[in-house]
Write a structure and sequence with these properties.
heterotrimer, A mainly alpha (about 270), B alpha+beta (about 130), C mainly alpha (about 300), B: about 130 residues, alpha+beta, C: mainly alpha, two-stranded antiparallel sheet
């Protein structure tokens, strides 16, 4: 290969990573030391680190309740997503009359961002009587086009010989799906789980619109409310940020490959 | 799936899969923490009061302050026993202060106590020192 | 086979179906739930928005058809709309900055160095975060008194007084844009990386043999073949930034004044704070048309195949 020095590249990349990670470090530092809220100049190493801001957050707001709400809504969304998207993805691998229409429909739905539907979505959810309920919070996100196409690509990649062999063995369509296709689509399922969980966990606008009572709020709402009540006067706000970011980061680090794969393949389709 | 996976028994593969291992560890840690909390949350705060010379003080009034919105308010008070020790039961909060006061001997500073969870049982390491006796 | 099937069909009770019909029922029943969700929460809302935009409606009273009155008010009587539109266009125009930086990063990460995966993960880490938390973090970093940005600027002697970033009419929107770029950088980089990895290496070798230097190789091979990826980044980045309700709402709430008000925050305020669903619907329709227009233009400019990544 060409001979060029590597160290400038490493230097540039390390500098970039530094810039990208400094906000994390800064928030972490403040959440355990509570300084640099009012003091200037800021210090690089935290003085008197203590974990008590995390305890404060736990008791200052119903953190457990918000966490539970977020978890319930996200779990509902993930399960529904995997089931619905797998079914739709499978259908798209078969030929049937009207397939082009359905495909066009799906592709055009990709062009309608959620934010342009908030008013009618709110009215519809109200009419269904689902405002301020877990189902109402989760329902709009029960299916996503990107994940449908991820499943479709995964099912398409299953060699036809396997399916034909199963057919010759006399398996019904249903059994073919269960015994042959789903086990081979594990990575698509993992991708779907990760993507839909993260989208649901981070979702702020829809819960903001669809919840009425304070104890149905999800974690992002709780965080925004905490900001408006406490301002930024203590390290507790930043402890809250860390507590809220930790599950997302953990999940991302566990399932990086699936996450990135899902995004690039799904984005490439759109 | 490669050859290496077939060398281990199937259940072991499942267990060591990161998607099972990490949640399992988290669940175990949560259960362990909750057990610890449940066995240590009687709200007992213990301590001692000494005077400026270090001798235990009997009959000093010790107050328990609890954080309420923006300030601390007195929630309970008790008096020290002959050996200078005191004990509060049923502390409801995680952010408290204690102070001791004996007319004639002086008063101590308000010592902040931060707990890891509400009503954690806690014993002060340093005794409350009375100062500025009149 | 067909004869046997028909024969057995005639012997079975008459409600047994042919295999192909059974399969069609299976397929459609598989599609039905997803279709229902999209119908209910994408297609129907689109139509309802259009309908609402031509009506005067408040929740307690019946709807009244008023034609283009809402649009008239929006275009001629509403300064906030024009300010929000201007801000939204500003955000769209700033997407290329993030993409250019990401292009540079992708080129660096794609080169033959150890630890590329680590770099890639670290840079991408900002994308899966909760935008509300990101907004709070950056709100504090841009703070006038204790913010890190001001501190660095003072230490490097760039300014002598701290800049009130989020409270100034000139700096507020760029601050929000900077926070958005920080969050999206990893995402752009991943997409461009995928595009880069799809360029066959022998193209570069052939060009090197022909005597092209690195810069010309970049200009003549990399950039043209990356066009689909770059425009995909632009479309996604644009969609993401103009719908970045979370970021603006938590960082500045549209302020100071209306300096960071974008169309989506204005729509939200109109609909859910002032309960003017009909007028907000008119704005939503306009917003949607704007998005479609920009996406269509980007698609045309990229050669009409913004979805294709790779050579064929």
């Amino acid at each position: 290969m060409r001979k060029y020095p590597r160290w400038p590249i490493h230097l540039a990349l390390v500098a970039t990573c530094f810039v990208m990670l400094v906000p994390f470090y800064w928030v972490l530092k403040t959440s355990i030391s509570g300084e640099n809220i009012f003091s200037y100049p800021p210090s690089i190493i935290p003085r008197h680190p203590n974990p008590f801001y995390y305890v404060d957050v736990w008791y200052a707001i119903p953190f457990a309740r918000f966490f539970l709400n977020s978890v319930i809504v996200s779990v509902m969304t993930v399960i529904a997503n995997v089931v619905l998207n797998a079914m739709a993805g499978y259908s798209l691998t078969q030929g049937f009359r009207g397939k082009t229409v359905v495909l066009m429909l799906f592709l055009s739905c990709m062009m309608i961002p959620f934010q342009t539907t908030i008013i009618p979505a709110y009215l519809i959810t109200g009419k269904l009587g689902l405002l301020d309920s877990y189902l109402g919070l989760a329902l709009p996100m029960f299916s996503t086009i990107i994940c449908i196409f991820v499943f479709k690509a995964s099912f398409d990649a299953i060699p036809h010989s396997l399916i034909d062999a199963a057919r010759i063995d006399g398996l019904s369509e249903w059994k073919i799906i269960w015994k042959v296709m789903i086990p081979l689509a594990k990575s698509a399922m993992a991708t779907n789980v990760i993507l839909s969980f993260i989208w649901s966990w981070n979702n702020f606008m829809w819960p903001l619109i669809a919840t009425r009572s304070a104890d149905m709020q999800t974690l992002p709402l709780g965080l925004a409310r905490f900001l408006s009540y406490q301002e930024d006067s203590t390290g507790a706000l930043y402890a809250f940020c860390i507590m809220v970011l930790a599950p997302g980061i953990l999940l991302f680090l566990l399932a990086q490959k699936e996450f990135v794969q899902g995004l690039t393949s799904g984005a490439a389709k759109g | 799936m490669n050859d290496e996976d077939f060398a281990r028994p199937k259940w072991r593969r499942w267990l060591l899969n990161r998607f099972v291992l990490v949640p399992a560890v988290l669940v175990l840690v949560t259960i362990g923490w909750n057990l610890w909390v449940v066995t240590h949350d009687h709200g007992i705060i213990r301590g001692r009061v000494v005077d400026a010379a270090g001798a235990p003080v009997e009959g000093a009034e010790v107050k328990l302050w609890v954080f309420n919105f923006a300030t601390f308010v007195v929630k309970a008070s008790t008096t020290t026993k002959p050996d200078g020790s005191f004990e509060f039961a049923n502390n409801p909060s995680h952010n408290i202060q204690v102070s001791a006061d004996k007319p004639g001997e002086g008063r101590s500073a308000r010592v902040p106590i931060r707990l890891y969870f509400a009503s954690e049982d806690f014993a002060l390491k340093e005794p409350l020192r009375l100062a500025n006796g009149s | 086979m067909v004869v046997a099937e028909t024969a057995t069909a005639m012997r079975r009770p008459h409600f047994a179906l042919r295999k192909s019909t059974r399969k069609a029922i299976l397929i459609w029943s598989f599609l039905a739930p997803s279709l229902l969700i999209f119908l209910l929460y994408r297609i129907l809302p689109l139509g309802w928005n259009v309908l609402l935009s031509f009506q005067a409606w408040s929740p307690m009273k019946p709807a009244v058809f008023i034609g283009l009155d809402n649009y008239q008010e929006m275009l001629f009587d509403d300064e906030v709309f024009w300010q929000a539109l201007w801000n939204t266009l500003g955000i769209i125009a700033s997407a290329p900055i993030g993409i250019a930086i990401a292009l540079g990063l992708a080129l660096l990460v794609n080169s033959d160095i150890r630890g590329r995966d680590v770099y890639r993960t670290l840079i991408f880490l900002s994308y899966p975060l909760m935008t509300v938390a990101v907004a709070i973090i950056w709100r504090w970093m841009f703070d006038e008194r204790v913010g890190l940005i001001n501190y660095v600027a003072r230490v490097l002697d760039l300014v002598d007084k701290p800049i009130p970033f989020l409270n100034s009419f000139t700096w507020a929107l760029p601050s929000v844009i900077a926070a958005n770029i920080w969050q999206m950088l990893g995402f752009y980089m991943i997409i461009i990386l995928t595009g880069l990895q799809n360029i066959p290496g022998n193209l570069y070798e052939a060009a090197a043999i022909d005597g092209a230097n690195a810069f010309r190789r970049f200009l003549r091979i990399t950039l043209p073949l990356l066009r689909p990826s770059l425009f995909l980044c632009f479309v996604i980045g644009m969609l993401n930034s103009v719908t970045s309700f979370d970021l603006v709402y938590v960082m500045t709430a549209g302020g100071p004044g209306r300096a960071t008000e974008i169309l989506i925050t204005y729509i939200y305020k109109l609909a859910f704070t002032q309960t003017r669903f009909d007028y907000a619907a008119a704005l939503t329709v306009t917003f949607f048309v704007l998005l479609l227009g920009v996406t269509w233009t980007a698609n045309r400019l990229s050669g009409g195949n913004a979805g294709a990544v790779g050579m064929d």
